[in-house]
Here is the input.
Amino acid sequence: MDSKKLYFRASLLTIFLLASMITAICFGSIEIELGNVTDEVTNFLRGQRTDSPNSMIIFDIRIPRILFAAISGAILSLTGMLMQTVSQNYLADPYILGVSSGAGMGAVFCIITGVAQIFAPYGVYVGAFLGAALATVIVVHIAGTSNSPIKLVLIGMGISALFSAFTMLEIYGSKNEAQVRSAMFWLMGSFTGIQWTMIPIAATVLAVLMIFIWLFRHELDLILLGREEAQHLGLSTERMQQAVVLISSMAVAVTVSIAGIIGFIGLVIPHIARFIGESRHAVMLWFTSLIGAVVMVWADVMARSMFAPEEVPIGILTACLGAPVFMQIINRQYKDS
Here is the structure.
């Protein structure tokens, strides 16, 4: 595709993302007019932040939440792209290695046992991250130096099933209804309680992920040609696979530990990015991250607005929206099969 068209489309996506993030501030259990939002932001930029309820809602609740939604959408979309590349399977998603199941087991353990309250407010996050790290270590250890994408996927499926079983066992063994409800809500994903302190962590992870993809964009393109062809051209597919697994697992672990499990974003967005842009990773990097951020921002708006003041777990919405889109994409790609 013509580079001018790519730049134009990327620019439009960037403008739409910024407009979406600003507009998203208005929506929630308490709606705020756009004019009031701009007034509060203007006062803040002048160093004259007010003590009004609107100011607290905008700066302490919604802006950090919206920023994290955009960042997490980009992270999940990019890791989904990496997983689809390294496994040579366009049905792969960020959770294919069992990282989300490990995080779920760790988080639910902290909630059910009360550890989350002891180490509040970070008990659930630490437990989820440790569970995700444990799943990653097991996958990397079992996979070893194998460069077989099929083996990697099957190991991930096994780890995912194992940790999911442990998670259900923890929930089944709990006699506290409030703890079970909290665990189930976390497993379905939510941006409730996102704070400013979480933004630098997520932003750093996204920056590292994007730098990695940019630095190894040519090697990732070679993998798309096939592993044998890539090896003939001098690429060590084993090391590349291990690097992708480690960087993707780290990124997913951080995101899932904070927001829970949010499905279909990493599966669907790379397909949309290929349709709008190109399959080259230098192009996919920007289109995938921008589209993922836009979709997650608006999914979060729907999650807190549809049944306000109640909030819908965002994982339910992404599944409801993503599944039909994914089926349509697959139907278009394989309509002649």
Q: What stands out?
A: The chain has one domain: 3-21+63-331. The domain at 3-21+63-331 is CATH 1.10.3470.10 (ABC transporter involved in vitamin B12 uptake, BtuC). The first helix runs from residue 3 to 24.
